[in-house]
Design a protein that fits this description.
Structural class: alpha+beta
Strand content: 15-25%
Distance between the termini: 22 Å
Shape: globular
Helix content: 10-25%
Order of helices and strands: EHEHHHEHHEEEEEEEHE
Radius of gyration: 18 Å
Number of strands: 11
């Protein structure tokens, strides 16, 4: 049986204008930091998505990019690109590179890493807004989603009123908007037919006072955080460039346990090479 997601204290917002300020602060070609997370913050961090444990069941402890670098002989740095670190030097680099048949999730930080990040952003009850990309197939149910080997209809994860409601329209993407406490960022996701809940990190979410903003762009294997220098410094990880995103400096391209630190690269104006095309996947 398919179970519709429980959104907790999250509330759907018809007044999508609460997110229009983001569009006013986005700029530069798609793929630049400033085209994904609002420009104007004092500092930015790039949180590298965990790497699933290799093996037939993928049930071991998730790995960091640094673990993969040690195995491939590559060097991890603030501008690291997964497709480059996943293979040893001298091996051709491909856009869809995998290491031992695994790669980090694209567009999703993952529950454990998201929990860690939420703990750094503020108190659990901090008022926030959450924007979810409208194109995820699981939002809409059948026929976009099927149960393999069954004729069972998969219901939408969101009510019809929400699916047919207004969207926050930003460059390259349209979003469904919710409001609620910071702690309920983990409520967004879908439930498999066998009952397991899969968390989907919000595509965008921000504090109601706009003091920080987080973006898990659907085509990126890292999540971007914009905020104060103090906030970014509190996110443990790699040293790297930092500063307001103006769209002129480039990044080299484009399930962690809760007790493990996030892997981050602090960024300023940067482009995620290889992430320059808006997605149309469902």
């Amino acid at each position: 049986m398919i179970v519709v997601v429980d959104l907790g204290e999250l509330r759907w917002r018809r007044d999508v204008g609460v997110g229009e300020w983001i569009g006013e602060r986005l700029g530069g070609p798609f793929g630049y930091v400033g085209s994904v997370v609002p420009r104007g913050y004092a500092a930015y961090a790039r949180v590298l998505h965990p790497v699933p444990a290799p093996g037939p069941s993928f049930d071991g402890a998730p790995l960091r990019w640094a673990d993969v670098c040690r195995a491939t002989g590559r060097r991890l740095h603030a501008l690291a690109q997964w497709s480059a670190i996943a293979v040893p030097p001298g091996v051709p680099i491909t856009y869809d590179a995998r290491w031992r048949d695994v790669a980090p999730d694209v567009g999703n930080l993952g529950r454990a890493a998201l929990d860690t990040l939420l703990g750094l952003l503020g108190a659990p009850g901090t008022p926030c807004f959450f924007a979810l990309w409208e194109g995820f197939g699981w939002i809409h149910g059948s026929p976009a989603v099927v149960v393999v080997g069954s004729d069972e209809e998969v219901p939408p994860e969101l009510p019809r009123e929400v699916l047919d409601g207004p969207r926050l329209r930003l460059p390259h993407r349209d979003y469904i908007v919710f409001s609620g406490p910071l702690r309920d960022a983990v409520r967004i996701g879908h439930t498999y037919s066998w009952g397991e809940f899969a968390t989907q990190s919000p595509t965008l979410f921000w504090a109601a006072d706009r003091s920080w903003c987080v973006a898990s762009e659907i085509d990126f294997d890292s999540t971007l955080v914009g905020g104060s220098a103090e906030l970014v410094a509190a996110v443990p990880g790699l040293p790297g460039p930092r500063g307001p995103a103006g769209g002129t400096r480039r990044l080299a391209a484009p399930r962690r346990r809760r007790s493990e630190p996030l892997t981050v690269a602090r960024t300023g104006s940067a482009r995620l090479k290889g992430a320059g095309r808006p997605a149309t996947r469902a």
